[in-house]
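Lecture notes, continued. The same structure-token format from the folding unit now serves as the input rather than the output. Read the line below as a description of shape only.
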């Protein structure tokens, strides 16, 4: 970059005096035979402060100031003083769990590969690490498990957090709604009108025998208290098991059959 400087004619004269006559010439003036005419005719009076003379010659206390573009010291790698470390954005990954995993709880081991700084503080290498996740009974979809600062390392940054987000796999028998388990089964019209018993196998392997004595209509639900998912805050507490029904109506009905149904229902048309 092009720089400009203002030339001080007085300083040029002082320097020329020093170059020709030395320190005595600055303090006592030039010899008489040189001072009658010309460039050496003016006497310079030394002020007695060497630091002032130094600043006048070099323009400051540091003769090497022009070699630097800012006040920061030269660095050869690593974090420069005054640079504030910032943390990388969190790395999010899905953690797919079965309904059984979320009912019983389990431990998942996940291997990650990340960049780790070597002891010299400048170079890095890729290393594997095993992260252990203790799944608690009752965890819900969307639960976040955070491993602070387990991302890639760098000399000038803070490693990112690694976040695993629970994603629940579908189950062939139950649908989860918060802490409740929904169980849907097909029944005939006869069963819906006359009552029936049904068996439901729970996630912990028990067989529940449930009697339905009510008339089952399309919006009917049977609630079995305390047979749902464990609560994550208190696994001893459970949600409910909710039974819903898909009523299968006959596709055809004979005249005799229709008459019998009318008689049974005591309907008159």
């Amino acid at each position: 970059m092009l720089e400009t400087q203002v030339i001080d004619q007085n300083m040029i004269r002082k320097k020329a005096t020093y170059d020709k006559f030395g320190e005595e010439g600055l303090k006592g003036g030039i010899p008489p035979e040189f001072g009658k005419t010309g460039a050496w005719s003016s006497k310079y009076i030394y002020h007695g402060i060497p630091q002032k003379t130094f600043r006048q010659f070099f323009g400051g206390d540091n003769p090497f100031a022009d070699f630097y573009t800012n006040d920061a010291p030269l660095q050869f790698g690593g974090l420069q003083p005054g640079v504030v470390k910032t943390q990388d954005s969190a790395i999010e990954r899905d953690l797919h769990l079965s309904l059984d995993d979320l009912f019983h709880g389990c431990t998942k081991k996940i291997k990650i590969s990340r960049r780790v700084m070597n002891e010299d503080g400048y170079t890095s290498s890729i290393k594997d690490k095993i992260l252990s996740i203790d799944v608690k009974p009752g965890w819900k979809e969307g639960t976040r498990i955070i491993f602070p600062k387990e991302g890639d390392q760098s000399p000038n940054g803070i490693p990112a957090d690694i976040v695993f987000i629970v994603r629940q796999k579908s189950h062939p028998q139950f649908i989860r709604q918060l802490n409740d388990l929904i169980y849907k089964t097909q029944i005939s019209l006869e069963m819906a009108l006359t009552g029936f018993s049904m068996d439901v196998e729970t996630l912990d392997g028990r067989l529940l025998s449930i009697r339905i004595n009510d008339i089952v209509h399309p919006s009917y639900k049977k609630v079995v208290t305390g047979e749902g998912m464990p609560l994550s805050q208190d696994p001893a507490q459970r949600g409910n098991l909710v039974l819903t029904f898909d009523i299968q109506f006959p596709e055809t009905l004979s005249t005799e059959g229709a008459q019998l149904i009318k008689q049974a229902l005591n309907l008159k048309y």
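Point for the exam: Residues 97 and 174 are 14 Å apart (CA to CA).
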